[in-house]
Amino acid sequence: MPGVTKEQIQQARETDLFAYLQFHEPTVLKRDGPNYRHREHDSLVYVTGKKYWYWNSRGRSINALDYLIEIRGYDLVDAVNQLLGTDTRSVSIPKSSRAVTDQERNVAGEQRKQGNPSAESFSLPWARRCATFAVSYLRRRGISSEVILKCFRLGIFYEARYKGEAVCVFVGKDDEKKARFACMRSIMGKLKKDVYGSDKRYSFCYPPEHPGSRQVAVFEAPIDALSHATLQEVEGWKWDGYRLSLGGTSGVALFSFLERHPEILRVTLYMDNDLAGLVNARKIRSALHKDPMFKHIRVGINPPRTGKDYNEKLLCRLQQIKEDPDVSRQKEAAISI
Question: What predicted TM-score, i.e. pTM, was given to this entire model?
């Protein structure tokens, strides 16, 4: 197996899974009499007397390597590196059980009191050094090299593995530039999944070129936000604001963003041009108008005139330019609802 030896694989299997979870995912552990259960996988039980995990639904025991590969989606090499600390981005876990200290529990408790219940359990998927597949995927979706490079520099986009499959990871950060949210998008398949413990209030956001912008454009998905940024390059219109992804159609990320950015005076909802997108855009606009904190903000709804979403609009635009390089690049009039 390239990248790891048989000895390393065996050593990873012998890593204490209970200690690993105490260190990396303490909130997934819940008491069940003298034993423990996994909060996300209720059939996964830690038998304290025999000191091993038993997967009742599969009828077998499970070790740390099995856990990372079968439950957390790592490939073999990444899982071994994570457990043994053979990569500089990994933290090794001793074979002997490591107890969570009172100080760590107190820190986690303070984070929960401050409204961040996921802070102690969220961690970004292990990043691949080479992001060839992820970059190629975005380029096929029409995203410009300049936009992709900016995402890399900001640390809000990279490539990882989930269940052995290459995925794009889009990261959301708080005001201190700390990662608080991440979602995965399959490169070859249909997977769309938030990383466990993600805080939806800090969804993916592509920032403006200059600080102090008073405008935010809102999209359902990160790729739509990046498509809008690419369209600006292609068509040459002037605009400098935040591009926020909701990670769906819920307004949670937007309302939290506006609370953290009271300077915002203009919100434009670039939701998908389908029933769900249009209905939820109207709901979000109505909620903003009714909230005393946000009623001063101008809100517009601008679905794409071409295609279902802004990525389809971008691809159509690029095809037009390919067929006729001299095609007019004047900005299309937006639909206002």
Answer: 0.65
